[in-house]
Fold:
Amino acid sequence: MLGLPATDDKTRLCAISVMGQILAYILAGPLLAGVWPGLTMTPEQVERIAEHIGISLLPTFRIFAVSTK
Structure:
């Protein structure tokens, strides 16, 4: 996606950003309950969250890709 090797620092930073977003939903149950009391992790909700993560991070990845050329 970035056009960079997997070992490049920018590639690693992007991968860590995705992991961080995912872990926020997995590990922050009590915090999420305070922000979104009715949240239940149905398959549909998981898909919606995954789509949100992709949409929110994609512009950053595009900036990284352009800045490496």
